[in-house]
Design goal:
single chain, about 400 residues, alpha/beta, Aspartate Aminotransferase, domain 2, Aspartate Aminotransferase, domain 1, 2 domains, seven-stranded mixed β-sheet, four-stranded mixed β-sheet, 13 helices, 15 strands, globular, binds pyridoxal-5'-phosphate
């Protein structure tokens, strides 16, 4: 076998290109090491990670305590399946519920799986608790949503690339504009079981709904006996400066979906949390996952939550988010349409005439900043939540000049 480590940048890309399915168009950088907010490429160049694996690495790369938890638990017992009990699962449930105020937890692995699990749960709840006639349950979702890549989920996406030629799709979903509580109210029928929404739309480009939207949505769902499902896979676990983004409007979802940073990026761990007894409708044999709730995942997730709280990452995200945003707002460039953010979930949107935002990300890379565009015109900025003041300033010193000149001939 040849040793990939000894190959050049070009050789590695050629192998990826030849043997891999081309489902991503990555930035032209090959990373081999990470620590905290920093990553290094195979030639030893250092970059600040301002994507954080789409907010999976909120706790920073290779967090020593999360790494230790993975090493320790995977050397003792990694997987039992749920055919047997393991001694880590109960503690994981307890920690998650204590932290989030949830009553029940369903452990899964990827974010999309957890969303699918929430949808299954809500349909079953609709028939068995709400009394919706057989196979008539409707779930309302939002325009420009992103909830993952399975066939059901892309079936209610309105992104052309995500859904084109993957049909036929599952029926039972209705779409309403994001941020419009009245549209939700009008779409609800006696057969509506749930409303699935991101508190801030991440993949759509960090779209923040109008103030009061989530509180109104909460009220509408309660009044109509509709389960409110918040997909906090990206907004959750400190990213917006609160543990959960729902806290910005002082509400509680009936079902919260977590993933990504639930493991600090160390291992795929996701979970459905239910506040009402929604998850109580699931009985043995009705849902499952070979890896869901495995001991290694539980140990990693417990530590990922512990460091988030003990090391003050949530408060830090709020403070550093303010500092970062204040810096970004000083940028003078008429090609910029909007600069927006909540906590350390930030984005700069250019007018389409400014050219593709991928160009900005290439220029940022030259300055030692890794970021990725969403769609054609938006650059998302989301460093790990452990970023320090001086690291924010270091980043701004590099980002401001690049964003100030983009699109200006
Ligand atoms: C990333 C993401 C998902 C999907 O998670 P995967 O682990 O990639 O399946 C779902 N919802 C939101 C809001 C996300 O950001």
């Amino acid at each position: 076998m040849s040793n990939l480590q000894d190959r050049s940048h070009e050789q590695i890309l050629a192998v990826e290109n030849a043997f891999g399915a081309h489902t991503y168009k990555p930035l032209d950088v090959i990373l081999s090491r990470g620590a905290g907010v920093w990553v290094w490429d195979i030639d030893g160049r250092k970059y600040m990670d301002c994507l954080s694996a789409y907010s999976a690495v909120n706790q920073g790369h290779c967090h020593p305590r999360i790494h230790a938890a993975l090493v320790e638990q995977s050397g003792r017992l990694a997987l039992t399946s749920r055919a047997f009990h393991n001694d880590q699962l109960a503690a994981f449930y307890q920690d998650v519920c204590a932290l989030t105020n949830a009553h029940k937890v369903l452990p899964m692995n990827s974010g999309a799986e957890a969303v699918e699990s929430a949808l299954k749960t809500v349909r079953k709840w609709g028939y068995e608790v709400k009394g919706i006639p057989h196979d008539q349950a409707e779930i309302i979702v939002c325009e420009n949503n992103f909830h993952g890549r399975t066939i059901t989920i892309v079936g209610f996406s309105d992104d052309y690339n995500s859904r084109h030629n993957f049909g036929p799709f599952a029926p039972g979903f209705k779409t309403v504009p994001f941020g419009d509580a009245q549209a939700l109210e009008q779409a609800i029928t006696p057969n509506t079981a749930g409303f699935l929404v991101e508190p801030v739309q991440g993949e759509a480009g960090v779209i923040i709904p109008p103030d009061g939207y989530l509180a109104q949505v909460r009220e509408i769902c309660s009044r109509n006996n509709v389960v409110l499902i918040l997909d906090e896979i990206q907004t959750g676990l400190g990213r917006t400066g609160r543990l959960l983004a729902e806290e910005h409007e002082h509400i509680e979802a009936d079902i919260t979906v977590l993933g990504k940073a639930l493991s600090g990026g160390m291992y795929p761990v996701s979970a459905v949390l239910s506040n009402s007894e929604t998850l109580g409708v699931l009985q043995p044999g009705q849902h499952g996952s070979t890896f869901g709730g495995n001991p290694a995942a539980c140990a990693v997730a417990r530590m990922a939550l512990k460091v988030l709280v003990e090391e003050g990452m949530i408060e830090n995200a709020a403070q550093m988010g303010k500092r970062f945003m204040a810096g970004l707002k000083t940028i003078q460039n008429p090609r910029i349409k909007e600069i927006r953010g909540r906590g350390l979930m930030m984005a700069v949107e250019f007018y389409p005439e400014a050219g593709h935002a991928g160009t900005v990300c290439g220029a940022l890379k030259q300055q030692g900043i890794l970021a990725k565009e969403t769609h054609e015109s938006t650059v998302r900025l989301a460093p790990p939540l452990i970023i320090t003041r001086s690291e924010v300033d270091w980043a701004l010193d590099r980002i401001i000049p690049v964003l100030s000149s983009h699109g200006c001939a």
